[in-house]
Amino acid sequence: MKYYIGIDGGGTKTKCILTDENLNTLFENTGDASNFLVIGSEKVSETILDHILKCCSAQKINSDLVAGIVLGTTGAGRKSDAEILVSQIKKDAEEKNIALNKIAIESDARIALEGAFSGNAGSILIAGTGSIMFGKDEQGNIHRIGGYGRYIGDEGSGYRIGRKGLNAAARAFDGRSKLTRIADLLSQEFSISTPEELITEVYRNNFNISSVAPLVFDAAESGDVTAQRILEDEAEELLLHIAAMKSKLKVSLLKVSLIGSILTKPNYFSYLFNEMVVRKYNDVKIMEAEHSPEFGAVLMAKQL
User: Fold this and answer.
1) Does residue 125 share a domain with residue 83?
2) What CATH number is associated with residue 98?
3) Per-residue pLDDT, 207
């Protein structure tokens, strides 16, 4: 009997599952964060090996019976960074006499895509602090749209919406535009009510710009035209992601699974976006993910 381990290494927690060769889940575990770009390769290696040992202990097997292990985590889209983490895990495993067969590091988006459609063709649109879209065509080729970061990209993300909200408040403070409910909410939520306070928070106090996105949602909900215009523009940007992915995948029906709080939690923006997709496309289907990212990592582990 062969076994496989899939791991979803997030910034706040790590999810891990062990399956048999028929992909039946035998054990699940949740542990500490494993974003190696934040906490370093050594700490993440320790966390991952702990998960592997817990899986093996639960099933009462030796680690050499695990035929494949895939960890999906932020930053692993850069091959050089992923190789550093793999080397660290292998080194630590050897020192601790933990037998490992094949192990690979993938991006968190990649395992989410694999899990969402059980390894088949489809696409995922991610919009949280940042934004990016991944798709897999019928030939198994992977395509990417967006993901250029906050300076030149991240359309439709919490950061982009928050930044536009702050800009709207700044313009209102100066009298360069009409008053906006966003400025009122900014004062209520963060005690920012003057240009000086806004500048200080953003440029000196490392203000979390994405935290303003919910204020823009609330302002739009209350009928604020400025906020509604911001969200309409950002939703249009995400529709451009979808249009580009449709062109790349060349499918009659584009299946899209949504990931990230901006699009998955009930709010003005998520409702608006879904309505705009329905209005504009009759060949795009928004659907729930079939499986979790960690299960997607298992599917990839079986292919190693």
Assistant:
1) no
2) 3.30.420.40
3) 94
